[in-house]
Amino acid sequence: MEGARPAAARDVARVAELARLMRAELLAMKGGAMWVEREARSEPYETAYAALIADDDAHVVVGTIDEAVVGYAVVVVERLRSGERLGRITDLFVEPGARAVGVGEGLKDALVAYCEDRRCIGIDALALPGHRAAKNFFEESGLTARALIMHRSLRPAADEEGVQE
What we know:
Layout: E1 2-6, H1 12-27, H2 32-38, H3 45-54, E2 58-65, E3 68-79, E4 85-94, H4 103-117, E5 120-125, H5 132-140
């Protein structure tokens, strides 16, 4: 049976392992190289996720199947200039073999509930342009694009071999 629960200190090593899998998967996608450079968390992941679990303005959730952790998600609550709050989903990943069975939905629902409890006015999430499954997942969850970030690489072509931006 799949489920989602708040992450605890005992989950940090597994969350860090999943974060490494997410990084490897997204790095290969269009926009992934810049995501790694700008938006992705930096190693050591164990330190980063332990700090998020302890942060009152963040919520880390693990997704499970029969109590085995197969996914994780993070939302960070930001204060806007108006003083209102915005939830920003920074991580949402489910192992490939555990996808399409409801784990991602459970993770998303837990993040939405957290943001509702904190009286956020909305929730943002980032999807890479080459990641159609993520885009579809978020759209099916009621999130729609509110901005597009356009990018042009100025790296020499030789530096970009194998890297899709």
